[in-house]
Amino acid sequence: MATRADAGEVGALLHRFNTEFGDPSPGAKTLTRRVAELIQRGDPSIFLLAGPRDIGVAVVRFREALFGDGLTGYLEELYVVSDRRREGHGRELMETAMRLARERGATTMELGTAIEDTAARGLFERLGFSNLEKRGDPSSQMLFYERSL
Fold this sequence. Notes:
The chain has helices at residues 7-20, 28-40, 89-103, 118-126; strands spanning 46-49, 56-64, 71-80, 106-114, 130-131, 142-148. By secondary structure, the protein is of the alpha+beta class. It has one domain (4-108): Gcn5-related N-acetyltransferase (GNAT) (Aminopeptidase), CATH 3.40.630. The chain has a six-stranded mixed β-sheet, with helices on both faces. A hairpin with a 6-residue loop joins strand 2 (56-64) and strand 3 (71-80). Helix 1 packs across helix 2 (28-40). The longest helix has 15 residues, at 89-103.
């Protein structure tokens, strides 16, 4: 798990993720500050880094389950830099995230991904996530996955 000392790497990778896919980012400096604050105050989020440095990041946030005991983990972000994909870093980040979520008392993990992100969808499905897709406008459709832990 990332520590406050790792916040710079986490922030830089999250910024890189958003800019690579054309999503807005408040910038690496702001993300670094925010991650450091969350870690410092003991927020229940998990920030994971792939090794060696600057390869990948995963962020899992937690909330209490409404319809059952335990927590629900939400994979907020998963990113591996483009030239290091298909080396197993995403799978390792996901497996670590699921293990740590179970250890914290989570009974499910949820995530969302774009319909056109077939590589990520394939990874999630290979890890046992089920697509709980809501039908809607195909041009803006997102997929929702869930996996029992």
